[in-house]
Amino acid sequence: MSWTDERVETLKKMWAEGQSASQIAKELGGVTRNAVIGKVHRLGLSNRVGGGKDEGEDEAPAVAAKAEPAARPAPEPRPEPMAAAAPRPAPERPAAAAPAAPSNVTPLPIRKAIIPAGQPLPPQPSANEISPEALASVREVEKHAKRLTLMELTERTCKWPIGDPATDDFWFCGLPSLPGKPYCEAHVGVAFQPMSARRDRRR
DNA sequence: CCCTGATTCGC
DNA sequence: GCGAATCAGG
């Protein structure tokens, strides 16, 4: 595949958003993360500041381990306009984090609008008719959860949210996810239930 | 081991 | 220009 305008555009957009090279490569398809990084450099947009959040990046002045013929042309000291506010008015009665309804797969649906307040919480189809043992194992597993933050999640970490998203008491499971699944074994057990296993609702 | 970006260099 | 291989690191 080649770098069509469209693909370059996607690359630029995602890179600006702070997506990793591998994520971009997967999105584009037909290229490796190396290709993406190479292109990024050729496009001259290596310094990813502004929109996204910074990774663990140091501003080491290009450590030249070996004898480098070319000298550093421009020692440009540039200020870093850090901007990371986290305004978060805590709602009085936040909805409990309970996914259990994974319908999409492409974009991670981890961002769920926080329900401000009010009596009628939307019907949460979870934590209700789940095999007791599954629930038990979940409880158990969550003790050992790696407590990853959103940005620490990868393709193979369990993305099950634990705790209250409206507080600091919130993290993601982070245990090894089942191949091809978004959750670890325990959480898959409560997330993906055969329709047959839930046959009540007699009302 | 998983992952990240950076750099080099043959093509 | 491209990107695999490699490097350097978390």
Automatic annotation (TrEMBL):
Residues 43-104 are annotated as: Disordered. Residues 61-73, 81-102 have a biased composition (Low complexity). It comes from Pseudotabrizicola algicola. It holds the Pfam family GcrA. InterPro entries: GcrA. This is GcrA cell cycle regulator.
